[in-house]
Amino acid sequence: MDIPYLTSLVIFLPTVGALLTLLLRRASAIRWTALATTTGTFALSIVLFLGYDPAVSTAGAPQLMDISAAWFPDAIDVKYFVGVDGLSILLILLTTLLGPIVVLSSWTYIDAKEKGYYALLLLLQTGITGVFASFDLILFYVFFELTLIPMYFIIGVWGGENRIYAAIKFVLYTLVGSLLMLVAILYLGYEAAAVDPGHVFTTDWYTLLEYNIPADTQTWLFALFALSFAIKVPLFPLHTWLPDAHVQAPTGGSVILAGVLLKMGTYGLVRFCLPLFPNAAQSWAFALAALAVVGIIYGALVARAQPDAKKLVAYSSVSHLGFVVLGIFAFTTEAMQGAVIQMVNHGISTGALFLLVGMLYERRHTRRMNDYGGLATSVPILSTLMVFSVLASAGLPGLNGFVGEFLILLGSFKSTVLDSVALVALATTGVILAAVYLLYMVYELFFGELTDPANANLADVNAREFVLMAPLVLLMLVMGFFPQPFLKQTAPATTFLLDTIEEKHAAVEAMEAPPTADDAAREALPVAPPEAAEVTLDPDDLRSFDPDR
Amino acid sequence: MDSELLVRLILLLPLFGAVVNGLGPLFVEQMRTREGWIGTLGTAVVVVPFALTAYLFATFDGTPVVVDFFTWMEAGDLSLQFSYLVDELSLIMTLVVTGVGGVIHLYSTGYMHGDSGYWRFFAYLNLFIFAMLNLVLANNLPVLFLGWEGVGLCSYLLIGFWYTDLSNSAAANKAFIVNRIGDFAFLMAMFLLFSQLGSLDFDVLLAEGPQLSQDVLNWTVLLLFIGATGKSAQIPLFVWLPDAMAGPTPVSALIHAATMVTSGLYLLARMSELVLAAEIVMAVIAIVGALTAIMAATIAITQNDIKKVLAYSTVSQLGYMFMAAGVGAFFVSIFHVLTHAFFKGCLFLGSGSVIHSMEHVEHELEAEGHDVSDFDPQDMRTMGGLQQYMPSTGWTYFIATLAISGIPLLAGFFSKDEILFKAFEYGFVGGANYAWFVWGVGVITAALTAFYMARSYYLTFLGEPRWPDADTVHAHESSASMTIPLWILAGGSAVTGYLGLPAVIADGKLNWIHHYLGADYGGPVAEPSLAGHVPLALEWGLIGLSSGIAVGVFLYARSAYLATGVAFDETLSARFGGLYQTWSDTYYWDDFYDNVVVDSLINGLARRGLAPFDGRVVDGIVNGVAGAAQVGSGLLRRLQTGVVQNYALALVLGVVLVIGLMVFGG
Fold first, then answer.
1. Which 3-state string (H, E, C) describes B377-422?
2. How far apart are CA A294 and CA A321, in angstroms?
3. Interface residue A333 vs chain B (CB under 8 A)
4. What angle do CA B411, B416, B417 make, to 5 degrees?
5. Across all residues in chain B, what is the average pLDDT?
6. Are B166 and A337 a contacting pair at CB < 8 A?
7. What is the pLDDT of residues A169-196, one digit of tens each?
8. With an 8 Å Cβ cutoff, are B169 and A447 in contact?
9. Looking at per-residue confidence, does A542 or A375 come out higher?
10. Distance (Å, rounded) from C-alpha A460 to C-alpha A126?
11. What pLDDT is stored for residue A532 in this prediction?
């Protein structure tokens, strides 16, 4: 199917839906509109997915692009530039998939001010999809900040007792980071113009990719970008906004938060920090990977100490995303592909865990694990779903979590950038610790005698809840046994990314290396024009040299 | 028939059973009580694969068959298929898994009758078979690991099967987590191998692995062995296995005796090329195995729970298998896996039959108005004299007891003797000093084995019944669906030893299992090359020694427990004093884990350390910064007085400052 402006449609259809809900009065009409919009968007994103051809991505160009003219022609090259590539396609799909799931999960959970809630939810989806689809840094920044506002209200209005504190903390914390990133983006735009006299200020990702920025400058820019993303991930020790936000947010908010919002951080690292500042990224790799590993262990241990099921799952995110960051900074294909697929996996399994904890909360209005016990008898289907999601989250082979973790650890072990067996060994202990805190949660919630009558009379999952869980559970299984169709989407883009990093890294090193006697000697000789080195191996060209033709 | 199709069926049928038995009744409540359907399907999906495997086995021509299902994952250098391998080693293991597994499924149809979780039980058990088949048929390490963790999952689900009792669930958690510690090492081994060889397929690993540097080889084998100590319950990771007896007895027989716990040995046998190249680690393997064997055997003497005796006995027997692996006799460790599957499976199922019967006694006593709150149907001290009530259970238990005790001409005699002989040979011919130690410990452990097994049999089945009102309240034999499996396994306990006749007979030419598995005869299991051999007379002497010890000790225990019954334990306790106490307190391993590991890690580090640290320090700093900003902005706010004169003053001061800087600053 050839739908014009498809990428933009996927981004902005939810906004249209949001505007539509504003016109409606009845809560049920609002819910159905939200469901229809998100489902329609998901369907469109499937079309997008089918239209995307991973094999083309070897050249690194995004596909299905929608590009406007520069907003300020001649002087400033900032424009509306969206598209998809192997790094973003799966995350876009995940975002649009979680859309209808979150709407369904809020169906009865949100019983006041529905209009505002669903409108914000839809707007939030536009923001997140936009983040993953932007290839202009200013546009990216706009979408990045756009996600803050709806999330602020979702937590602040529909959240728990301490919602205002959590909402303000969430916004301020992430704002600090993103404002610094804005400074860095502006600097980068000017720097690009300065490096190449023919150019103007630009924030076009694809153009910026061609510049080699001096290592010193890279360090500062990298630090500002990385700080912003590290807060978003969140990387230890910048994580404390997360448990507060999760615990206070309504279920739907938590699912979005854990499922895709945090991935904006890890995605940003991959999309911008690595290819734009390859030298800085490699020199900082060990430090960031070490923080990630601290986060894996620390998050797991703190999770184990939580009496609150939702907080436990929140801390598990700190632990799990540590794996992703480790994989990103390993600079190997295996680890990078693992990191990209693990972003999706984490969204699925942690999203499922938040949904299930939310279902329990809706029934019993408590998140304290002590208040439960023996639920396996009263709600067997819910228990089965939870155990399944827990196993996926704990990285059981055959379910999705294993694929990502395995590739990340496998690739980090052989990483020459990290070059640390100890780091990977410590990270791998996360596999043990995940079992510790997750099985403990299952133990507290589901096993034992049903002593409390309030627990004995709980209703098992209803049809709506089953429908919203089913796709996630199926995906855990499918992506566990058949991850290859998904890995295939990301492979060329990952290879391109790592090759680009490698090339640029070497180029900057060569640029800055003090001239040696060798260089002097070489300069004395006539050299081939630099263009010759840039000949790409086009299969068609090669064929023309074929003597048999 | 097409062997690829057969492999697919063998693997997928149990999965099919698990899905149907699991999902159907979960959603359709009426199906949960359809025991006939569930049990038949559950058993059929294991028995049919057994028949198919038997066909494969009979028609196997010595050429390994590789069956690729589909690509699992590809990334960078990694290219991983769902790939399966049929060779001599995987055939034997598959036969054991589906054969003994099928028998135990049949037994379970009777044992679990009336349990409200009947459907769940068969779903888990079928899933276990699927995972175990992945483990033994895998053609690369990750698929093996999939099975490895899969059996761990099923073990977790089945130990905690009766989840309303939290102690069962706690035992399940312990099993899973301790196994994960081993799995951590397994993962590290895979990462290391991959970083060196760029592949995890067996053919690459076994062909190129031995050429790796000695350091890499030592680390790899050590890590694999640590992985094996988790699954196969060796020091220091054995602690989960005795607790695992919380699961239904068929589970103890199938998973925690016959199959899953032997997967560590399978792993070492599969990787035997690499293990042989890491001599130092072989010594570690053998010594850990020997220490585990004697430690668990001494603990078994002091246990009163019939299943706990068998659990520690399993740990001990697994130790024997590691001794064999540690002296390079991998095929012998698989031989012992095979014989052990029969006699230990038989013993566990027998104990299940006994427990059923004692539960029946408990109910009758309760009906007669007795207080049964202290009655433990697994405690041997309340049993006795069961042979007269349950002859099939008694006889089969007796046969299996003789077999495990190493009484000549039964299965355990051949396989255990072969282990001892190989250890002796490795010291005598191979010149490895640790082998002498291993041999010595093995002989002592053989004596202990005969003792605790005789004790178990005589306390349970002979003497007078020790439960109250034994004159009127009788025990009963179990149904045929339970006794038939007992007789099948007892038969195996009697005859499977003849698959590996010792070297003294026809110069080893009748040692079928050696010829089938050993690399010397083209099999997949590597063997050390030893120059020379143990003299024939000495071999006969060794056989005589171990036979004599087994028979002697067995008869001694028999007379002691027949004469004084339970009271003989007190005699032992008095004679060995503190040593006996150490045994009965399981060498304080559980205390160590509970108090030191769990308590310090969870309660100390996590609960009292990191969680408050996270709130007060990490978050405290964040809130501190925010607070400082608030204070700072509060101060700045005071500057905004709204009085125009103040602003004018500031303006003038600023102008003066700037002019001053321009004039004097240059």
1. CCEHHHCCCHHHHCHHHHHHHHHHHHHHHCCCCCHHHHHHHHHHHH
2. 11
3. yes
4. 100
5. 93
6. no
7. 999 998 988 999 999 999 998 887 777 6
8. yes
9. A375
10. 33
11. 40
Structure tokens that stand for A45 in this block: 């994103």
Q: Which amino acid, A186?
A: L
User: What per-residue confidence (pLDDT) applies to A57?
Assistant: 63
Pairs of residues, one from chain A and one from chain B, whose beta carbons lie less than 8 Å apart? 144
The token duo for A129 is 């999809």
Measure the CA–CA gap between A430 and A303, rounded to whole angstroms.
Answer: 12
ipTM given for this complex: 0.92
Give CA angle at B383 (B378, B387), nearest 5°.
115
Calpha distance B413→B450 (Å, rounded): 11
- 3-class state of residue B305 by DSSP: strand
**Mean pLDDT, range B116-134, rounded to an integer:** 95
Number of domains composing chain A: 1
Selected residue of B12, B29, B73, B194 to mutate for chain A interface (largest A Cβ count, 10 A)? B73
Mutate to test the interface with A, among B614, B621, B633 (most CBs of A within 10 A): B614
Q: B169 vs A443: CB contact, 8 Å cut-off?
A: yes
Q: Which among B78, B170, B607 has CB closest to A334?
A: B78
Query: Residues 12-41, chain A: which have Cβ within 8 Å of B?
Result: none
CA–CA separation, B493 vs B399, rounded Å?
7
Residue A535 lies in a domain: no
Which residues, in sequence order, are CB contacts of B231 under 8 Å at separation 6+?
A: B148, B151, B152, B179, B182, B260, B261, B263, B264
Q: Specify the higher pLDDT residue, B592 or B290.
A: B290
Q: Is the pLDDT of residue A539 over 50?
A: no
Instruction: Tell me, yes or no, whether A259 lies in a domain.
Output: yes
CA-CA distance, A22 to A32, in Å (whole number)? 13
Q: Are A377 and A450 in contact (CB under 8 A)?
A: yes
CA distance A234 to A240: 8
Q: Does residue A83 form part of some domain?
A: yes
Name the minimum distance, in Å, from the CA of B645 to any CA of chain A.
Answer: 35
A545 in any annotated domain: no
Can you tell me the mean pLDDT for A401-416?
96
Q: Are strands B65-75 and A81-84 parallel, antiparallel or unpaired?
A: unpaired
The dihedral through the CA atoms of B501, B507, B512, B514 has a sign that is positive
Structure tokens at B401: 């007891």
- What chain A residue is nearest to B167 in terms of C-alpha separation? A448
Q: What angle is formed at CA B36 by the lines to CA B15 and CA B32, rounded to 5 degrees?
A: 70
| B526 CB neighbour count, 10 Å cutoff | 23
Which residues constitute the domain of residue A458?
A: 6-510
| List of residues 6+ apart from B600 with CB closer than 8 A | none
**Structure confidence at residue A206 (pLDDT):** 87
**Chain A residues close to B142, C-beta within 8 Å:** 397, 406
Structure confidence at residue A195 (pLDDT): 72
- Smallest CA–CA distance, residue A516 to chain B, in Å, is 35
Residue A63, strand partner residues: A84
- The whole-number average pLDDT for the span B335-340 is 96
- For residue B453, give the amino acid letter: M
Query: Sign of dihedral through CA atoms B115, B116, B119, B123?
Result: negative
Residue with tokens 């289907």: A381
- Structure tokens belonging to residue A342: 């693990």
For the ranges A484-498, A510-524, A525-539, the maximum mean pLDDT occurs at A484-498
